[in-house]
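sry for the spam today, last one i promise. struct tokens for design, 382 residues
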């Protein structure tokens, strides 16, 4: 008679890259090793009620579409279920003492500290969650929208990196948006609420679909490369609270047309707004309301825009900007019209001739009546 062996674990890399489509785990198995089913074609995984440990990367980038964590599981390794294209259902047994998926949130939450360890495209974040772990949504395909509740005070490293999230709301309880936390995601809109003070390095870098950023008037620092390579961004407003924009914060934002810099800005780092390398894209209009020209650490902050952008500054500060290091490189510096209408620059080729424009900047004839810009000044034609 043959010998019968009882399998009590699935070893590291056991089905790594395999074409297996469905697996049923017997009750004898207590451990699933690291990388056991990663990169596999696994679609259906029937888990037993005796499993205790799931290793690092166990199912990463597999075809699995649902996860059931039995009550016996004590340990779940890092990135165990990340980058799974079809994953949409995550359920933790109600009797598990270590983890849960409260309120049917389609996520794995560690009970001991209310930390969300892993989510997917159909997850939502319950208000009882206080932290989002490192790599929690790393590589999770989208599209999906997330509103992070005010109960969350910490987001881990790479939490949403390379994910399919298209819109996120970040609460003010997060004093810092951590480095790389949303890098390489698919964001189109970012809303940050009052209370956030710092946007850390590379936090939103390489979001090539990002079109809208709402930065609250509590942020004082934007760190290195925070929004670098956000190539769909066309309009940007930096609030008055921001004092420091570090090097390359908005480098290679190749669609940026209009930029508003707040009155509190003090320092600009190297290549902060160099939107195309070497000179492939220029910002069209830059408004800076700081009465004292912010200090440029190097005169290449707007390297791609100096010759063609129009810089608007407070009327009382025009001469300061024309002589300030870096700022003096702009070919065109004009005063900000306090009524919100900026003067139309006089065409040098038409000096001595009357030039009239309506408030949309369109040329008008002598028969036009109302407020116009005439030779760079606002006048009323009755």
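last one done:
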């Amino acid at each position: 008679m043959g010998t019968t062996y009882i399998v009590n674990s699935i070893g590291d890399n056991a089905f790594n890259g395999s074409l297996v489509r469905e697996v049923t785990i017997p009750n004898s198995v207590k451990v699933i090793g690291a990388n056991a089913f990663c990169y596999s074609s696994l679609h259906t995984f029937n888990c037993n009620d005796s499993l205790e440990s799931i290793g690092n990367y166990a199912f990463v980038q597999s075809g699995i579409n649902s996860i059931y964590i039995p009550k016996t599981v004590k340990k779940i390794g890092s990135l165990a279920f990340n980058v799974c294209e079809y994953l949409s259902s995550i359920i933790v047994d109600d009797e598990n003492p270590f983890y849960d998926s409260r309120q049917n949130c389609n996520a794995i939450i560690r009970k001991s500290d209310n930390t969300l360890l892993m989510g997917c495209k159909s997850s939502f974040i319950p208000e009882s969650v206080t932290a989002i772990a490192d790599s929690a949504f790393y590589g999770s395909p989208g599209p999906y929208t997330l509103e992070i509740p005010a109960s969350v005070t910490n987001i881990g490293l790479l939490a949403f990196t390379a994910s399919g999230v298209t819109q996120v709301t970040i609460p003010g309880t997060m004093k810092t948006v951590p480095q790389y936390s949303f890098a390489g995601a698919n964001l189109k809109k970012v809303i940050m609420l009052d209370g956030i003070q710092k946007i850390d390095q590379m936090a939103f870098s390489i979001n090539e679909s990002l079109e809208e950023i709402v930065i609250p008037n509590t942020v004082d620092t934007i760190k290195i490369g925070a929004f670098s390579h956000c190539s769909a961004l066309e309009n940007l407003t930096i609030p008055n609270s921001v004092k420091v924009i570090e090097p390359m914060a908005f480098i290679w934002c190749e669609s940026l047309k209009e930029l508003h810099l707040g009155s509190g800005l003090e320092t600009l780092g190297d290549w902060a707004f160099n939107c195309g390398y070497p000179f492939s894209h220029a910002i069209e209009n830059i408004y800076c309301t700081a009465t004292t020209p912010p200090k440029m650490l190097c005169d290449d902050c707007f390297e791609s825009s100096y010759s063609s952008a129009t810089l608007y500054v407070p009327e009382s500060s025009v001469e300061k900007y024309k002589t300030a290091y870096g700022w003096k490189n702009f070919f065109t510096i004009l005063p900000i019209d306090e009524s919100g209408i900026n003067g139309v620059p006089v065409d040098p080729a038409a000096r001595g001739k009357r030039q009239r424009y309506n408030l949309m900047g369109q040329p008008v004839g002598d028969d036009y009546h109302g407020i116009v810009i005439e030779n760079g000044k606002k006048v009323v034609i009755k």
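DSSP finds one helix and 31 strands in the chain. ok im logging off now
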